[in-house]
Design goal:
Number of helices: 12
Number of strands: 8
Shape: globular
Strand order of the largest sheet: 3-2-1-8-7-6-5-4
CATH topology: TIM Barrel
Distance between the termini: 61 Å
Radius of gyration: 18 Å
CATH superfamily: Phosphoenolpyruvate-binding domains
Largest sheet: 8 strands, parallel
Order of helices and strands: HEHEHEHEHHEHHEHHEHEH
CATH class: Alpha Beta
Structural class: alpha/beta
Oligomer: single chain
Helix content: 40-55%
Length: 255
Amino acid sequence: MPKLPTNSFKAALKAGQQQIGLWNTIGGNTVPELLAGAGFDWICIDTEHSPVEVTGVLSALQQCAAYDVRPVVRPAFNDQVLIKRVMDYGAQTLLIPYVQSPEEAAAAVRATRYPPEGLRGVSGMTRASGYGTYENYTAMANAEICVLVQVETGEALAQLEAIAQVEGVDGVFIGPADLAASLGHPGNPGHPEVKAAIEDAIKRLAAFGVPSGILTLDKAFVRDCMDWGTRFTAVGIDMSVLATGVRALAKEFKG
């Protein structure tokens, strides 16, 4: 029988390797396939702030499978049912949004684990199990799951160490846009107070050995974040890349 695939994203995090990613917000088959072959280390399939529904995750994961890229799935919320569904589709790495406390982080971890460690429901005939062909899937699956929690408010940053050190949390993602709003600067993630809070969070995480991640379209700031210690760093969004390109093309020819 074939064996469960190793989670190479999780392995790279443990090895301290920098992984450069891109956000996927455009559903269907074509765009995820194009992104998967573009050369990034990881692609975040986003169902929180995009029209991609839970069922669209399956197609995106299937497109990624043919390429040397590590898919990360962001459910719409820290919800046991949503997490169960994307995991049955084969997601091994999940980015859980809006985690505010160690208790919420622990709940996210439990939702990804089969009993007795967690609450994930068991179903044998899923893509995650190779449609029933992976050897000892239910016994082996927990070890290859990677849980990233998203910390994106001032309240959450105040509990950063406690959240990050919950057993089963493999990394912490800092959300600049929501953090900016939480700190009183909505729409301005480049505000000095926001940037200072992000720098502090990344360095705090690095100090006790927990990988951190971020998404920012500010190229200078993303390099700063990498210098401070981020290890899973997203540098673009498919919709933004498309919008920038087509607007520049229109401007070039229409003035």
